[in-house]
Amino acid sequence: MATEVAIMKTIGLTNSGLALALSGRFMGGGANASVRILREIQNNFDVVFFPTVKLLTLNNSAEIIEALESHDLGVPSCARRLALRLQGSPIYRLSRLLGSSLYQEVANEYKNCLQEKPDLLFDPDYLDPDVAFLSSAMKVNFGINVQTDYFSYDNLGIWPKRFSIAVSPGGHPCLLKLYAQSVAANALPINRLRLSLTTDRLKFVSYVSYGALMESFLNRLAAPKIVIDPAYAVDFTPASRSKSDYALFFTSLTVSKGLLHLPLVLDQAKDVERLLVFGPYESCSMKAFLKLVKRYHLEQKVRYLGEIKHGDRFNEVVSHARVVIYPSLQDSFSMVILESIALGTPVVAYDLPGPKSVFGGLSAVRFVKTGDIKAMAQQANELYNMNGGDLRRMFEEESYRSFIERHSRWDAVVKSYLSVLYHAINY
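Structure (tokenized):
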């Protein structure tokens, strides 16, 4: 009797951040999660990776495609040809602002050079419309995962106001250019991204937090909405609870992550003796930050450590901090908060809906009203001065223990995603 052989389904992936992470050029919280999810998807599906229009127009697009292939990802044969034609071109920005013809053209090229189309298309960190155009060209269903509050009601229509809050403490001339670029990159194309999803082929929209779902204008779409829980995990435990005399800020050092609010907070948080900062930085944001540090005479308090990758030094610096001051203005979950409390360091943050819906029940995370510098400084002082006994009890609470146990299992994270993908394929 012949044995029936199960045919592995094919997932078509497309995402710029994931591709950059695989090529060693970028590793943020969302991209890191996408890489972990990809590894498990590869164990359960055949995978075809479609480089986005954004990637194809980068100067080093051919190198990125080569890196993707080195990770055993199937890349359409025409991707290199497209990269040679488009790399280094500013047409990506123009396409986001003025129209969709380039996205349609690239999607059609991919369709024509594929021998077999995938069973499902998936973007694990939706920020560009490529997946919707691929779906339309190939007549294949798709799903998206939202790992940012880019699509929040707060962004829709009033992004310029939100950005002005982020940069208002600054005053560096380069911020005017950064402001204009952000309006062009965020406010103008957002509605087009939404409209590209108004199709019956969209089978699900998943989110990394309940707060992100409730704040997203994408929740008006007819497709099923899913909250991935747990959406992220950490795979380290604190080696020490001993604390040193410094506060900490670490993330991508940009205005949207609250970089320019830090000096104002530190100026009022008089008890904080030192602030250590690490992470990759955007040039203009760092110039404005240093200008503020000088304005408030904080040069002796602030020290930049450069970029620190995950590992022993990362764990040591985070776990020995007395408090993480995190005035981020844009987050839908926050790996910074998760990593900090997993390493035994309390956090004070703004009350963005996404992070608050995830961490709101934990004593180790204190939220203050977004933009309230005085309240953040007060909470930073309190946490900085917390005695060892109170700190220990904070991290011995059952709510904390159960939360960290749940968010220390990447297998649970990928299981949630795989369940969504299988359901969408068989829907």
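The radius of gyration is 22 Å. The chain is about 45% helix and 10% strand.
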